[in-house]
Amino acid sequence: MKKDEEDDDLEPEYDLRTLLKGSVRGKYAERFQQGTNLVLLDPEVAKAFPNHQAVNDALRLVIQLSQLTRANKKAT
């Protein structure tokens, strides 16, 4: 027996037509097309933020500061 066959837990007697009955094709297609941007934070970084809103606020502040820095460099 091949290793792939050993790891496969789908039994030959399963009928996929029965398992997939009632499913909706493309149910999440629109959401997928909108896109998501998931980022995995390192544990020490995640401890600094109580929730996703705090992370977003901090990133917005970084964006504003970088824009100010660029504007100051162009002015000089």
Report on this structure.
The chain has helices spanning 3-7, 16-19, 29-34, 43-46, 52-75. It is mainly alpha-helical. The chain has one domain (3-75). The relative contact order is 0.05. The model has no long low-confidence stretch (mean pLDDT 85).
SSE pattern, N- to C-terminal = HHHHH
Biggest sheet character: none
Shape descriptor reads elongated
Number of β-strand runs: 0
Helix content: 55-70%
Report the radius of gyration as a whole number of Å. Answer: 24 Å
In terms of per-residue confidence, which ranges show pLDDT below 50 for 5 or more consecutive residues? none
Describe the SSE topology:
Blueprint: H1 3-7, H2 16-19, H3 29-34, H4 43-46, H5 52-75
Features:
5 helices, mainly alpha, single chain, 76 residues, 0% strand, 57% helix
In short:
57% of the residues lie in helices and 0% in strands.
